[in-house]
Design a protein that fits this description.
Rossmann fold, Nitrilase/N-carbamoyl-D-aminoacid amidohydrolase, alpha/beta, single chain, ATP-binding, C-N_Hydrolase, 2 domains, EC 6.3.5.1, six-stranded mixed beta sheet, seven-stranded mixed beta sheet, about 20% strand
Length: about 550
């Protein structure tokens, strides 16, 4: 039996960029043909990008996708191409069309429509009902789309129709548990059907979602033949042997570091880069406090965009320590960013003076502390407006969960790289980045003094985060159980947590939903991110 040479286009196809996506697909199709591929596959909804959301309600958008699909089909010229696109037939389907010999030969419709987590397919699409199998270079190839492979029936239907190889095109977002889950599902489908599986995934950041690529080849016996690196654009060549139902990768790139920290860091970098570049911002700025969160955010921004596109601003008051001033300056110098020190004591005091008559008879409290943070927010937004650089918020998931953040203060910003990263993980990432970036003649990008110091908002004398919150190890364990694990208070206490602490933390999470509704978007990297995935009512009697 002849072997089938195929190519998997693990690339970024941005939402709404229909003409540009078609042009990229045509370029990759030509590259695959030159490399000897007989079939090239592209990710889910190649032409529209994923998820196009309410763009799918616009007839002109659907028409543009149809037009580009026809033009792409005309350019096949000796290679078959599997292309994802929205397909309108009175109703709209999430489709994958096989293009060959200048025409659309057949079209598969996504059968299993996910409607959980970040997915909202049922809002826009109607389900397909059949698995399509096509003969390509003498091989029977089943054509499935993303969620189809997570259910047993579509793959079983493809196998019953004679498929030897199943090609699955995907827009599967990354989180810290996703790759293991994917491999378990793909292994199960291969063993159930005896079909080899070529799993192609989209790569790139789209608002709050980050797609990792990490495409996979699975042999017919369920063994993993190859894993592509995460967050890398690549045209992946492979060969399928129908006699053994085995796939062989051809010169696939190998990641230098496949640890969880390395992959998570790459996810955050990709999220920042794509959000800034796809929205055509010149660069970013952020408030650099001398603390761990802003330090990691600065490192991510520089790694994503380059130092020349990043501005850092330190805004000290009477409560800012020399350790903070020195730590911020050291990091700015080490990373080579544009750096400014703008004292805000006088500006803050002018606010206090103006409000003093209205505050008469009331003691100083968190109002004055928050006013410092809001003064910084005003300054940062003014700098953002003047210089055309997007403001990054630097808060982490632990803080956002319990409301340890100031509306219109440190929550100011249009994108929040650490929004879905717990504080304990912030420390892990900072240490990983230092280990990965230190050289013989190059200092670590994040000063050790910044990592080792007790975390503090520095809004009053001798303040630390632990004055107001449980230790972060304990806090994050409770939060992960309550948010990702959906555990009740009773279950958390049974797991060994102090009852009073659990009650307090849960109360804070529920109480601060209104703050999170006003927070900046940030890359989703856990299984339950705040935002489009975890949607709780603000007004609720449930405790």
């Amino acid at each position: 039996m002849a072997k089938l040479r195929l190519a998997l286009a693990q690339h970024d196809f941005p939402v709404g960029a229909v003409a540009a996506n078609a042009a990229r697909a045509a370029q990759l199709m030509a590259q695959a043909r030159e490399g000897g591929a007989e079939l090239v596959a592209f990710p889910e909804l190649t032409l529209s990008g994923y998820p196009p959301e309410d763009l799918l309600l616009r007839p002109s958008f659907l028409a543009a996708c149809d037009s580009e699909l026809a033009a792409l089909a005309a350019a096949t010229n000796g290679i078959a191409a599997l292309v994802g696109h929205p397909h309108s037939e009175g109703e709209v389907f999430n489709a994958a069309s096989l293009l060959r010999e200048g025409q659309v030969e057949c079209t598969a419709h996504k059968q299993a429509l996910p409607n959980y987590g970040v997915f909202d397919d049922k809002r826009y699409f109607r389900p397909g009902h059949d698995s399509v199998v096509a003969a390509i270079a003498g091989v029977s190839v089943g054509l499935l789309i993303c969620e189809d492979v997570w259910q047993p029936e579509p793959a079983a239907r493809a196998a019953a129709a004679g498929a030897q190889l199943i090609v699955v095109i995907n827009a599967s977002p990354w989180d810290d548990h996703k790759q293991g889950e994917r491999e378990a599902v793909l292994t199960a489908r291969a063993r159930e059907t005896g079909c080899a599986i070529a799993y192609l995934n989209l790569v790139g950041g789209q608002d709050e979602v980050v797609y990792d690529g990490a495409s996979i080849l699975v042999n017919g016996d369920g063994s993993i033949a190859a894993r592509a690196p995460a967050f890398v654009d690549a045209l992946l060549q492979a060969e399928f042997d129908p006699a053994t139902r085995a796939l062989t990768p051809i010169d696939w790139p190998v990641p230098a570091d496949s640890s969880m920290e390395a992959t998570l860091y790459a996810a955050l970098v990709r999220g920042v880069r794509d959000y800034i570049d796809k929205n055509r911002f010149e660069g970013v700025l952020l408030g650099l406090s001398g603390g761990i969160d802003s330090a990691l955010t600065l490192a991510l921004a520089v790694d994503a965009l380059g130092a020349e596109r990043v501005t850092a601003v330190m805004m000290p008051t009477r409560y800012t320590s020399e350790l903070s001033l020195d730590g911020a300056r050291m990091q700015a110098e080490r990373l080579g960013v544009d750096y400014h020190v703008i004292p805000i004591e006088a500006t803050y005091q002018s606010f206090v003076d103006a409000l003093t008559p209205a505050f008469a008879g009331k003691p100083a409290d968190t109002t004055e502390e928050n006013l410092q943070s809001r003064t910084r927010g005003v300054m940062l937004m003014a700098l953002s407006n003047k210089h055309g650089r997007l403001l990054l918020a630097t808060g982490n998931k632990s803080e956002m969960a319990v409301g340890y953040a100031t509306l219109y203060g440190d929550m100011c910003g249009a994108y929040a790289p650490l929004k879905d990263v717990y504080k304990t993980v912030v420390y892990r990432l900072a240490r990983w980045r230092n280990a990965a970036g230190a050289g013989v003649s190059r200092p670590t990008p994040i000063p050790e003094e910044v990592i080792d110091r007790p975390p503090s908002a520095e809004l009053r004398e001798n303040q630390t985060d632990q004055d107001s919150l449980p230790p972060y190890d304990e806090l994050d364990a409770i939060l992960a159980g309550f948010i990702e694990g959906e555990q009740s208070q009773a279950e958390l206490v049974a797991a060994g947590h102090d009852a009073a602490t659990v009650q307090r933390v849960v109360r804070l999470v529920l109480l601060n939903e209104f703050k999170r509704r006003q927070s900046a978007p940030g890359p989703r990297v856990t299984t339950r991110a705040f935002g489009r995935e975890r949607r709780y009512p603000i007004t609720s009697g449930w405790r």
